[in-house]
Design a protein that fits this description.
6-stranded antiparallel sheet, 126 residues, mainly beta, single chain, 5-stranded antiparallel sheet, globular, Jelly Rolls, 11 strands
């Protein structure tokens, strides 16, 4: 079982949004993916859906999360549970960066992502 150094796995993402893929197919993981992110105030993810569940663990900061038509303020020690095909997005609010862990029960979840606003990271950033 490999030990993963987060600092070696940063991937380009969105402006003011740093992301590290913790699990990758070359580490032996076959059916899940997890990422660690540090996101600045005002940054986030546009409204989108995935074909699989998504779990977002908030470690620090506050996210304003939209799930369907509901808006929630979510802070540390909370987990956002997003079922498959449910529209969701978020923006970091407050006065400090957010740190989150994102988990999917599939590999390469962004291959199965559909954007309702904006577009994929590094393709249609505002």
């Amino acid at each position: 079982m490999p030990i993963v150094s987060h600092s070696e796995n940063e991937v380009p993402w969105r402006p003011n949004y740093r992301k590290w893929d913790i699990t990758q197919s070359d580490d032996g993981t076959t059916s899940s993916s997890m990422a660690y992110s540090v996101i600045g105030v005002g940054a986030g993810a546009p409204l989108h859906t995935h074909e699989a569940d998504e779990l977002i663990v908030v470690l620090e900061g506050v996210l304003e999360v939209r799930i369907n038509d509901e808006i929630h303020q979510v802070g540390p020690d909370h987990t956002i549970v997003v079922p498959p095909n449910v529209p969701h997005g978020f923006t970091i609010v407050g006065d400090s960066d957010a740190r989150i862990l994102g988990f999917f029960p599939i590999q390469d979840p962004f291959h199965y992502t559909h954007y309702l606003e904006g577009g994929p990271a590094n393709q249609n950033d505002e």
